[in-house]
Amino acid sequence: MANDKKAVTPVAEPLTLPCGVTVKNRFYKSAMNEALASHDCAPTEAHVRLYRAWAQGGAGVLITGNVMVDHTQLGEPGNIAVEDERDLPMLRRWAAAGAENGTHCWIQINHPGRQSPITINQHPVAPSAGKVDGEYGKFFAEPTELTHEQIHDIIRRFANTARIAKKAGFTGVEIHAAHGYLINQFLSPLDNRRTDEYGGSLENRARFLFDVFDAVRAAVGPDFPIAVKLNSSDVPIAIKVNEQNGAPGGFNEEESIWVMKQLEARGVDLIDISGGTYSKPVIQTNDGAAEDRRRGVYFTDFARRIKGELSVPIALTGGFRNADDMEHALNEGITQMIGIARPLALVPDLPNRIIRDGWCGSVDLPRVSTGVKPLDKAFGGILVISWFELQMHRIARGKSPNPRIGGMRALLFALKQHGPAALAPRRRKGHQ
Question: What GO molecular function annotation could you give as one example from this UniProt entry (predicted)?
């Protein structure tokens, strides 16, 4: 590691959000599924230790993994669900640990819709009936179409979870409206074939998101940060050809920009740009650093496109591996927060190393492999997620991350933790 001191780097500068809250620097730890919840979907002491380590590592904002608003509707094994105040004491300890060292700790609230694996949910719901498309469809049960009463109940649930999060001491919330989960399903004309006020036109398809946002804002008040994670489009950049504008018939970039402008008018404090769904995943390989070098920083073309169209802060997530790329993105003005996830599972104090120590190196993520090609092919995405979950579990146990751990050990770890549910596809949130 280089120890050459630099002038004050842009990532060290504070940022004041539209609600008036200031975060201390531009490091935005993006969501990863920690898979640390108890069997009854409650937070644990492991969450406290993991988030304390990240808070002491120097990030400005920590975004939690998915916290579901309904314990019967989980997106991944090991999800937390917050429906009432039964877990308030542990939520308070988790929030306090994540807020140490002047850090903001925001809870990501979500509902999976039809993207709830059949191994953990045989009765998913969705804007419309219809299974998940593509090779992953066999892992999900046929959902039932939501009634108006159910839609309004879910809106209430989002607001209630946000209220409890604030009461517990979390300093903000992020509404997950990306990655093919329920809100994204409402936005997508491929998934949403409703003919009522929640379907059809973009304005109608976005109504659910806007209703959720307004309900959350009413629950937490005007001076509490609310971020929204939103797809730039439903097409993954890994399979874009000639910058095609979204999955055919899916939520596209023009629609995303319109939604962002509407959210800005409603008072959103930050938009976290992402992309892709289960049937069109963002990442399709497990090549680690080699893939990072091919791809670079994700979604930069879209970020440049919206530069100047929005005044709300943007978090650009994915592919940031060194301080030079981070500084370039901030100086170019295409993002105001540096979204970073997987490197923090290997280098929990990366923000401190860059800001305090002037580290100029690069975090090279390993290629995760079992050494058995058929296994790698069959479980590539699951393998990578499980490998990074294993690293987070090590941090939560007070151990150091170990990049030398092999893929086979990660796969066995996942099976031990989650049983058969471990083999169902999960979003590659860790690939950021």
Answer: NADPH dehydrogenase activity
